[in-house]
Design goal:
By secondary structure, this protein is of the alpha+beta class. About 45% of the residues lie in helices and about 30% in strands.
């Protein structure tokens, strides 16, 4: 049994080495592909984040407003990250034996890295604080060019 396991492990390693060499040959022929290509146009992505002022923790109204400013900024960046990187949704539903829903949950997760985004406006809107951010995709392309990744 051990001999069979060793043989299968060696065969898998040999196959994986062969497939890697063919990939590196194709890259040598066509040059490195960074995945970054000059787009025909450069859209400007925009997002707005909101946060309630009165629901923020703090002893004074000024502290609550500052915290709402920060929370709305983080929310705006999260919205922008959704546009750039996408969003991961995980949903669970539970049914009992009579096919009656007993529980349901939805979880959203965003994970990404933004570079070149900037705050356009921050302003109070009643009891809410709003922050508008934008990301010019030309800036992203130029950053890749500066790094020599193109």
């Amino acid at each position: 049994m051990k001999l069979l396991f060793k043989f299968l492990a060696i065969a898998c390693m040999a196959l994986s080495l062969c497939s890697c060499s063919s990939i590196s040959l194709s890259r040598n022929i066509f040059g490195p592909d960074t995945g970054v290509h000059k787009p025909p146009e450069y859209p400007v992505l925009r997002a707005t984040g909101y946060a309630s002022i009165s629901r923020q923790p703090g002893a004074t109204q000024a502290i609550k407003q500052v915290k709402a400013m920060r929370a709305s900024k983080i929310e705006a960046y999260r919205e922008l990250t959704e546009q750039v990187s996408g969003i991961y949704i995980k949903a669970n539903d539970s049914l009992n034996s009579s096919n009656v829903e007993t529980s349901s949950s939805v979880r959203a997760e965003v994970d990404g890295f933004l570079k070149g985004a900037r705050v356009i406006r921050q302003y109070p809107l009643g009891d809410t604080y709003a922050t508008e951010v934008e990301l010019d995709t030309r800036v992203i392309y130029d950053l890749y060019q500066l790094r020599g990744a193109l």
